[in-house]
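Example record

The entry below shows one chain as it appears in the dataset: sequence first, then structure tokens.
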Amino acid sequence: MKKILLSVFMVLSIYIYSDTCASGMYQIESGIVYYGFDMNPNPDIVNIEKKEEINGADSKTFKEMVDYGKDKNNVYYEGKKVKNADAKTFEILGYTPQYIFTAVCYFYGKDEKNIYYKGVILKEADVNTFKVSGAYEAEDKDYNYKGNERTKK
């Protein structure tokens, strides 16, 4: 019985861990903003390895937003500056998962003019009607999106 329970626990743990969206994180240390990856499998211990400094990021106004981050001047995705993004109006777009073991991902974001997927503008996406329905799925008044690909409704 113990072997069966242990096997179920291991399979479930692998499933949950493999459904994680964000493995990177931001860190502010001595006034410098870094982006790196938490390589420790224990979720209670954060150990950022292979971190890189985000040149020009303002540590005093920096706000972490999962894989996105922003300061008073710029928006970042996985530590890289997002071109043409308006830091003042930028927000991440997420969804509420249907199942408890579904990861919550924030690949989509928006500002007053554009929708972004993983830090890249989705051309012609309608900012006013865009809604996220899953980790990789979204829609606006004219299109369905899966990641950065769209199909007409």
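Notes for this example: Helices lie at 2-18. Residues 5-20 have pLDDT under 50 and may be disordered.
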